[in-house]
Design brief:
mainly alpha, 9 helices, 180 residues, single chain, 2 domains, Lysozyme
Length: 180
């Protein structure tokens, strides 16, 4: 956290002194790392590249070695049970440790986003499922106070999940503004 604050201070100092442009500052804050991999799986699974970048940005800050206290791993922070399910769906045999490889992490994470977008038909609801799980979102969709139409969440009852969805959405909008 302290390193991030120092880095942000230095970036802002450079921006203020004119050493970097505002656009390059935004590109520093919202990097376009692993572009060849992201673009490849974006096209293969028909998932908006800005959404993929936003999930990576939010989940791991582009750190390939990222892991969570809950047990998720890789750029897109996939849980072990979800990884096993994805391997089965994709007809692949892979090790959970393979998620520390950028290509594997983005391929599996993008495929998961593809499946969730197909299942739920709405980016916000799919992101809630990415964070809280498909089963949990299924329960929420059966609650008319959360999803009046039974298909789209209008409210997310878990504060962490609601915050996650807002963060990814903001990051996605920034990626669209910066990179088109």
């Amino acid at each position: 956290m302290k390193k991030q604050a120092i880095a942000l201070f230095l970036i802002l100092l450079l921006a203020v002194t004119g050493a970097v442009t505002f656009r390059s500052l935004l590109k520093t804050l919202y990097p376009h790392k692993y572009a060849d991999i992201v673009e490849k799986y974006s096209a293969q699974y028909d998932v908006d590249a800005a959404l993929i970048y936003a999930v990576i940005h939010t989940e791991s800050s582009f750190r390939t070695d990222a892991g969570s206290d809950a047990g998720a791993a890789g750029l897109m922070q996939i849980m072990p049970e979800t990884f096993e399910w994805l391997c089965m769906r994709m007809g692949e045999q892979a090790s959970f440790a393979d998620l520390y490889d950028p290509d594997t992490a983005v391929r599996f994470g993008t495929y998961l986003l593809h499946l969730l977008l197909e299942e739920f038909g709405d980016t916000r609801t799919a992101l809630a499922a990415y964070h809280a799980g498909r089963g949990q979102v299924g329960k929420w969709l059966r609650d008319p106070s959360l999803a009046p139409d039974g298909k789209t969440l209008t409210q997310i009852p878990f504060r962490d999940t609601a915050h996650y969805v807002r963060k990814v959405d903001r990051a996605m909008q920034m990626y669209k503004k910066i990179y088109g």
